[in-house]
From TrEMBL:
GO MF: intramolecular lyase activity; lycopene beta cyclase activity
Protein name: Lycopene cyclase domain-containing protein
Any single GO CC term annotated in Swiss-Prot or TrEMBL for this entry: membrane
InterPro entries: Lycopene_cyclase_dom
Chief site of localization: membrane
Superkingdom classification of source: Bacteria
Pfam annotation, one family: Lycopene_cyc
Residue ranges of the TM segments: 31-49, 69-93
Keywords annotated in UniProt: Carotenoid biosynthesis, Isomerase, Membrane, Transmembrane, Transmembrane helix
Bilayer topology: Multi-pass membrane protein
Length: 106
């Protein structure tokens, strides 16, 4: 199994949960802005630290299981997990009854 296929499964689950939250109208414009901000920061940090760790030799990837697309030394597949987390976790929070994101309880 390639990392890209494994990532597709995680991203599909995240997208499904976010779609359910969106259909239940639990997502506001502030929610989307917050998720986008968190995603951008997480992707930048992933790029920085994954490249540093790969450069230091802490881990590597089997070339047979990656797509061959890289951001410097980090394979593009590394960026699917922060993407899935940024979509899935806030959507789950709204679905399990957490504070509606983008709104405050006064």
């Amino acid at each position: 199994m390639t990392y890209l296929l494994l990532n597709a499964v995680f991203l599909a689950v995240a997208a499904l949960v976010a779609a359910v939250a969106a259909l239940r109208r639990l997502i506001s414009a502030r929610f989307v802005a917050g998720v986008a901000s968190a995603l951008l920061l997480t992707l930048v940090l992933t790029a920085l630290f994954d490249n540093l760790m790969i450069r230091a030799g802490l881990f590597s990837y089997d070339p047979e299981h990656i797509s061959g697309l890289f951001v410097l030394l980090a394979p593009i597949e590394d960026f699917a997990y922060p993407l899935a987390a940024a979509i899935l976790l806030p959507a789950l929070w709204t679905l399990v009854g957490g504070t509606r994101l983008g709104q405050t309880d006064d």
